[in-house]
Design a protein that fits this description.
Layout (H helix, E strand, L loop, with lengths): L4 H10 L4 H5 L1 H10 L7 H12 L3 H13 L10 H4 L4 H15 L13 H8 L4 H24 L5 H9 L16 H8 L33
Helix pairs in contact: 1-8, 3-4, 9-10
Length: 222
């Protein structure tokens, strides 16, 4: 049984829509009504379930692809929004993957550790205190993606906002990540084992969902 099923609820809704999702909408509705931590967001989250229920599977799939696969501003890969093509993204990936493995959580060959539904699935399996700590670390990026989705009128914005509302930490705005020349990085560091990315080595022992410089401070006179 999931330790924190609310994270699993969000994870499933953020995945590519399949027939099984629509078949289980009544179960998602029941859970939404029963979990107290979602009650302040219930109205908006209900509107998302209504969106799923009022469109064909093909329409849902086409919108999902247009929203997340064809628009990098909405990408559900957390590190893309803070590292861009910077080589530190690889180190962050290694650290997050090690975090998963330390708690017995293994990914499939086609999954990247910073994919938000994967992170949420992981949070659903670990002790609540640890899940809250990791969510507090990642919430700045999650809120950033949610803001982009809201600006573009996406129904998925309410899901990111709902996750943000669960965080014990208030999100801070992010600076857009730099764009690095990957060819130059390949020449400097050499290719990794796949031959498609620069050779990267982990530089920290704990997960860092963002570099310190990724925050755009709102304080003045500091």
């Amino acid at each position: 049984m999931s330790a924190n099923p609310v994270y699993k609820w969000f994870s499933a809704l953020l995945c590519y829509p399949e027939a099984e999702l629509n078949e289980a909408l009544s179960e998602f509705q029941t859970a939404l009504q029963e979990w107290p931590e979602l009650q302040t967001q219930a109205g908006r989250l209900n509107s998302f379930l209504d969106y799923l229920n009022s469109h064909s599977l093909r329409e849902l799939q086409e919108n999902y692809v247009a929203t997340f696969d064809r628009n990098r501003n909405h990408a559900l890969y957390i590190f893309e929004h803070v590292y861009g093509e910077d080589r530190d993204r690889g180190s962050a990936m290694v650290d997050l993957l090690q975090e998963y493995r330390n708690h017995g959580f293994e990914l499939g060959n086609d999954e990247l550790p910073d994919y938000l539904p994967v992170l949420l699935e992981y949070l659903s399996q670990v002790p609540p205190e640890h899940a809250q700590k990791l969510l507090g670390d990642a919430v700045h990026v999650i809120a950033h993606i949610g803001g982009k989705l809201e600006k573009n009128g996406s129904p998925y914005a309410v899901l990111l906002q709902g996750i943000t509302a669960l965080s014990p930490v208030a999100p801070q705005p992010l600076i857009e990540p730099p764009v690095r020349d990957m060819d130059e990085a390949m020449e400097t560091f050499g290719p990794d084992i796949s031959g498609t990315e620069p050779l990267l080595k982990p530089s920290v022992e704990t997960v860092q969902f963002y570099p310190k410089a990724a925050f755009q401070t709102a304080q003045t006179g500091a």
